[in-house]
Write a structure and sequence with these properties.
This protein has 531 residues and is of the alpha/beta class. Helix content is 36%, strand content 19%. The two termini are 46 Å apart.
């Protein structure tokens, strides 16, 4: 398909119709070939060491088992890491242009198979088709954007000055070695590809552990790497539990660095592990958010309400950037609330392969339990549940479905401080911009934030004072969501990140490298020789 798919840009009705037809065909094709077993593998070869297996199940149809996977056996881990380390020496010695060429072939193959990949994402994660297509399209765009950044910097090389005649100097960014990449379920193609491609373009090899909730999508990425001609052992996949194979990979002596997206608790454990060895290892993390949007009296309330609903309801609240705190000025609270609920009522909870679906299921039973607990807590400690969604497109299959909720809550309420990863938002009323910004920043997290105001003073204060890495003003397509490679850098502040430089942005790839200064003394007549 030649249409442009992102999380925010529209397409013509004819393009959308063709896209929907192709997507439905891809879903049917997958459903005709379920039940495959994927053995553990080293490089491109299966291994048959006895190990446990686990199944990937459709969260929208709990009776639909997709495929089964062998957990990677810990007694084979040394072999994988040895191969990865050996392959890295050759991979790093390639000219950066060659690594770019390899990765652009991967991006092209992702685009060629976008419908099949997106259909798998929907079946495995419960995303609706628009979200899944955006996930896969973002994966390809991340590769190309990071490749462009590598090209624009001449492979991260800069000449430096000299103090002596014949002194030639330069700064070179060099890879670390073997990077472990641990990806989450919510963007199983985009985040896995983004972290992995940055590491690979930088000259590292990658050992990749997908979420145990979305192993199929992770396996499809590994297959694409192989089928695009990636040299064996440059990118390897290990399935299994984060608490077992993930922890073992992080702690392996051949691991030179870790890239992780997931919970704060797991991220802090990984970071401690990366600092506890013989030397400190890079640990690049994005750890979620408790994102807020400020609604001021001069705001366009139609745009504000639409942007808020999209960011609360999108992917059933399971985005790190999801809106979960709405901070509204008291002067416009009532009209804003009316518009918010009117727009919310137009959204349909549905089985995610259906064309009507706006919201699918949450990922697992634990998320359903969090929603039930949030419903109970919303009416405590000064809070009040004010909206519970009811609209579906008929009977839902047996799955992990959660109805979205809004509650009026004090800023310090438990539900306003902890990331829930469900379609739930608390609404707090404020009386001034000072109050609004203080409430926005009253959080350990600092990933995304939004503001709706036509007052330039409000906007500039928001930009300068909001403690978050991704800021949006007056954005009806998503008050706090919808970042895209090369358009919005995605950087978590405070508990939302670790490095201060985000994915989708110009500084990301360089974090997978370390600086090396090179100086050589040349005869005066040979000063043009390269370092």
């Amino acid at each position: 398909m030649s249409i442009r798919i992102t999380y925010t840009t529209p397409n013509s009705p004819a393009e959308v119709a063709a896209m929907n037809q192709a997507f439905d065909q891809a879903v049917a094709q997958h459903r005709a070939h379920l039940g495959h077993h994927y053995p553990a593998q080293i490089g491109y070869h299966p291994i048959h060491t006895s190990s446990s297996t686990f199944a990937s199940t459709n969260p929208a149809h709990l009776e639909e088992e997709l495929h089964t996977f062998a957990e990677f056996p810990l007694n084979e881990l040394d072999t994988v890491m040895m191969h990865a380390r050996t392959a890295q020496h050759q991979w790093a010695r390639l000219p950066w242009q060659s690594r770019v060429a390899y990765m652009r072939r991967v991006a092209e193959r992702i685009r060629t198979h976008i419908m099949a990949l997106a259909a798998a994402v929907t079946l495995e994660s419960g995303k609706n088709r628009a979200e899944s297509l955006g996930d896969v399209a973002e994966a390809a765009d991340l590769i190309d954007y990071y490749a462009d950044e590598l090209s624009a910097t001449d492979g991260y090389h800069r000449p430096l000055g000299s103090l002596l005649p014949g002194e030639q100097t330069g700064s070179w960014m060099r890879p670390y070695g073997v990077f472990v990449v641990i990806a989450p379920f919510n963007f199983p193609m985009a985040l896995a590809t983004g972290m992995s491609s940055a590491a690979l373009l930088a000259g590292n090899t990658v050992v990749f552990k997908p979420s145990e909730e979305t192993p199929w999508t992770g396996q499809l990425l590994a297959d694409i790497m192989r089928d695009s001609g990636m040299p064996e052992h440059v990118f390897q996949i290990c399935h299994g539990k984060g608490s077992v194979i993930g922890r073992a990979l992080v702690n392996h002596p051949n691991t030179a660095g870790v890239a992780f997206t997931g919970s704060v608790a797991t991220g802090m454990e990984i970071q401690r592990a990366c600092q506890s060895g013989r030397w400190s290892k890079p640990c690049l993390m994005e750890l979620g958010g408790k994102n807020g949007a400020i609604i001021m009296p001069s705001a366009n309330l139609d745009e504000a309400a639409l942007g808020c609903v999209k960011s609360v309801f999108g992917l059933s609240g399971q985005k790190c950037s999801a809106l979960s705190r709405i901070i509204v000025h008291r002067d416009i609270k009532e009209p804003f609330m009316r518009k918010l609920t009117e727009i919310a009522q137009t959204w349909i909870v549905s089985e995610p392969t259906r064309l009507t679906c706006n919201l699918g299921p949450v990922i697992n039973a634990a998320a359903v339990q969090r929603a039930e607990r949030a419903r109970a807590l919303a009416n405590t400690a000064g809070g009040r549940l004010v909206y519970t969604h009811t609209r579906t497109d008929g009977d839902l299959p047996i799955g992990h479905y959660v109805m979205p909720m809004f509650a009026e809550l004090p800023a310090a309420h438990e539900l306003m401080q902890h990331e829930l990863f469900i379609p739930f938002a608390g609404i707090t009323t404020v009386s001034s911009l000072d109050d609004a910004i203080a409430t926005l920043n009253f959080s350990d997290f600092g990933l995304t934030a939004g503001c709706f105001s036509q007052d330039e003073t409000d906007i500039q204060r928001f930009f300068h004072e909001a403690e978050a890495g991704v800021l949006y003003v007056n954005r009806p397509t998503g008050a706090t969501t919808g970042a895209w490679p090369g358009v919005q850098s995605f950087c978590g502040w405070k508990a939302s990140g670790a490095s201060g430089k985000g994915g989708c942005g110009p500084w990301y790839v360089s974090q997978f490298m370390r600086e090396q200064s090179r100086t050589r003394m040349l005869p005066i007549t040979a000063q043009s020789t390269k370092v």
